[in-house]
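Worked example

This section walks through a single chain of length 55. The input is the sequence exactly as stored; nothing has been trimmed or padded.
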Amino acid sequence: MKNQQLTNRETLNKIFSAKDAQINMLVDILKNKKVISEKEAKFIKALEPFPQLSL
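Given that input, the structure is written out below as tokens.
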């Protein structure tokens, strides 16, 4: 069971990492097109998209 949990956690980490990269790219595009400000871009990037849960 513990190995399965580790595998599931690793899978989730990969998914979250890919989504985080997509969010960062989107924020950069919006900033470069002047849809959002530099300050807003920094604020969004400082947010934790997937809060750490106590496991």
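What to look for: The mean pLDDT is 81.
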